[in-house]
Amino acid sequence: MSRQPHISGRAPSQRQLRVGELIRRRLAEVLARGEVHDPELNAMSITVGEVRCSPDLRVATAFVLPLGGERRDEALELLRRNRSELRRIVSRGLNLKFAPELRFAIDETFDRMDATRRLLESEEVRRDLRGGETNEDD
């Protein structure tokens, strides 16, 4: 599921997608197990929705969301504060030439899905989907 157009304007390669998924799984595992030496970060439940890699695989952007969607800014700050340790731990479990720099952003997929659902449930859209029918007597 693509979130936004890629910087180069092209879709990510199979290699980028594969490495991104490996990093996503490993990062999610590290966060779930509380392997970081930060009790505040370990106390938060954070979902890793997607990891998108740069074409050279040196930068990986993880799209994350804390459980319930609350305390987003705090979660980002904790992840950024521990990015070096996370990079070291995550790369240990992967067989890559370089340990990618980890960047973090809030995953807004669920917010967009809710907005789309609300839009599709609106009466105006329902009327348009029915073909513009009205309840007027002709």
From TrEMBL:
GO CC terms of this entry: cytosol
Gene Ontology biological process terms in this record: maturation of SSU-rRNA
Major subcellular site: cytoplasm
Subcellular location(s) of the protein: Cytoplasm
Gene3D superfamilies given in the database record: 3.30.300.20
GO molecular function: ribosomal small subunit binding
Cytoplasm recorded as keyword: yes
SUPFAM superfamilies: Ribosome-binding factor A, RbfA
Pfam families, per database record: RBFA
Keywords: Cytoplasm, Ribosome biogenesis
Coiled coil: none
HAMAP family referenced in this protein's UniProt entry, alphabetically: RbfA
Function: One of several proteins that assist in the late maturation steps of the functional core of the 30S ribosomal subunit. Associates with free 30S ribosomal subunits (but not with 30S subunits that are part of 70S ribosomes or polysomes). Required for efficient processing of 16S rRNA. May interact with the 5'-terminal helix region of 16S rRNA.
Subunit composition and interactions: Monomer. Binds 30S ribosomal subunits, but not 50S ribosomal subunits or 70S ribosomes.
Family (UniProt): Belongs to the RbfA family.
The protein's name in its UniProt record: Ribosome-binding factor A
Naturally occurring in which organism (per UniProt): Meinhardsimonia xiamenensis
